[in-house]
Design goal:
single chain; alpha/beta; 6-stranded parallel beta sheet; 5-stranded antiparallel beta sheet
């Protein structure tokens, strides 16, 4: 019996990348591969890369080099955004055997088969020429890259299980048409493409059957879901159409799924009509991630963000008027080109006014090929680092204040993972991490009680 080939994965980047990595893992398992941790010897190493920042590019290259160093005879596969944006650079590096761009990841088993078939063929033909110290020769690199500026088909990767015991991410959208001045992702991911609702529903039904209780809808620009469907219209009142709202209601009817959580949203999707739909979905978690990026109107204009701070704040107010203590989280970029002390002070003041539950803070990363990368006024790294530090400190204060509002309040918690031998950890619908007594047999159960705080831990009693 032929020994199974061993495959190891490493994921970098966003939740969409995580979803696609799990989908590729399942594809290889279905094709007879044994999945092993990335640190172990393997015949195939797959790195799902990221290119959102220069640091992400560097980490992608580092992991590809680590894979080749662990086993020089292994097949090293570079997939994803770094490959799509920097394909020639990745190929010239010399460590990569197969390059797979976005919208081509479902071809992984096929490309590996072609690579191994070539190696076997080359080995037979050149067997006499091999030295005693040599192994079979390596075939030339394989490349699977498409022009995503022209691609309109959604790549239908899917998963039947997820890493968490209770929560599964569901990718329903890819690509972005926004072209924010700092962002390389529209070039790495291409134009917007949406998953058909019946295909998304079928996957959710399978996940529910497998025991998952919560799904998180995710995409590169989730708010654009459905805009590429025939007949879909957008208006000034509903600039991102009604596709995501319709999908949400459709998926909420799947039995066994108790919670639906939305990924990152464009602030402009928050309209009275959209919020009314959210209110009518009793499975929706009142946890909203509205990307901000800056609290200065002048910086937002340079970023090509298409809203003002006043409009953004009105979206937050609408959510707070419609839900009880909703958790509102955001992203902020520190040190955008030309950001003055005054503009940064405006961001700090706005963030305090918005009262976020959590902030993801990123120092600006200059990206070749973007409008912001060509802007004057690029700030020193020390300035970006100090401004990030201030924002993170403020984020910690706001997060503690939001969680403190829940002490003494009733809440439901979906238990997920052990925290020690006799304690489980789970999350409220607002995504507050809470502890509860019990063992692994409690995983997947929803429990109710009053939140207390002891020794810095939030506990359900």
């Amino acid at each position: 019996m032929e020994k199974k080939r061993r495959a190891a994965f490493h994921n970098l980047g966003c939740k969409v990348n995580s979803y696609e990595t799990e989908a590729m893992q399942q594809l290889l398992a279905e094709n007879g591969y044994e999945l092993v941790p990335f640190e172990e010897p393997a015949d195939v190493y797959i790195v799902n890369t990221c290119t959102v920042t220069n640091i992400a590019d560097r980490k992608s290259r580092q992991m590809l080099h680590r894979a080749k160093k662990q086993n020089p005879r292994a097949v090293v596969v570079a997939a994803g955004c770094y490959v799509q944006a920097r394909g020639e650079e990745a190929l010239a590096d010399g460590t990569v055997d197969i390059l797979i761009g976005n919208n081509q990841k479902a071809r992984l088993p096929e490309l590996l088969k072609e690579w191994f078939d070539r190696r076997e063929s080359d080995g037979r033909e050149r067997e006499q020429a091999l030295s005693e110290a040599s192994d079979r020769p390596l075939p030339a690199s394989l490349t699977a890259l498409s022009d995503l500026s022209r691609e309109r088909d959604y790549e239908n990767l899917g998963i039947l299980r997820a890493g968490s015991h209770t929560r599964a991410f569901l990718k329903v959208q890819d690509g972005c048409d926004q072209f924010c001045s700092y962002c390389i992702i529209p070039y790495a991911r291409g134009r917007i493409r949406s998953r058909q609702p019946e295909e998304a529903e079928a996957e959710v039904q399978k996940l529910a059957t497998a025991g998952y209780r919560e799904i998180v809808l995710t995409g590169i620009h989730l708010s654009s879901y459905g805009l590429d469907f025939a007949g879909e219209k957008r208006t000034e009142e509903a600039p991102f159409g009604r596709g995501l709202a319709r999908l949400l209601m459709r998926l909420s009817r799947v039995e066994g799924i108790e919670r639906i959580r939305l990924g990152s949203l464009e602030p402009r999707i928050i309209t009275k009509e959209f919020v009314k739909t959210l209110q009518n979905c009793d499975k929706l978690c009142p946890h909203f991630h509205l990307s901000l990026q800056s609290g200065s109107d002048s910086v937002l204009r340079r970023m090509n963000r298409r809203y003002t701070t006043e409009e953004y704040l009105n979206k937050c107010r609408l959510l707070r008027e419609s839900f009880d203590k909703p958790a509102i989280t955001t992203d902020v970029i520190a040190g955008f080109p030309g950001e003055s002390e005054e503009e940064f002070a405006q961001t700090l003041a706005f963030v305090r006014q918005a009262r976020f539950y959590e902030m993801h803070v990123f120092p600006y990363s200059r990206r070749r090929g973007t409008a912001a990368g060509r802007m004057p006024g690029q700030l020193p790294e020390a300035v970006k680092k100090e401004r990030s530090r201030e924002l993170l400190a403020l984020s910690g204060q706001m997060s503690a204040a939001y969680r403190e509002r829940w002490v003494g309040q009733e809440a439901s918690v979906l238990l997920e993972e052990p925290e020690g031998e006799k304690t489980m950890a789970g999350y409220t619908r607002e995504y507050i991490r809470v502890l509860y007594p019990g063992g692994m047999e409690m995983a997947g159960k929803e429990v109710y009680g009053k939140i207390t705080c002891r020794n810095g831990n939030y506990i359900l009693e």
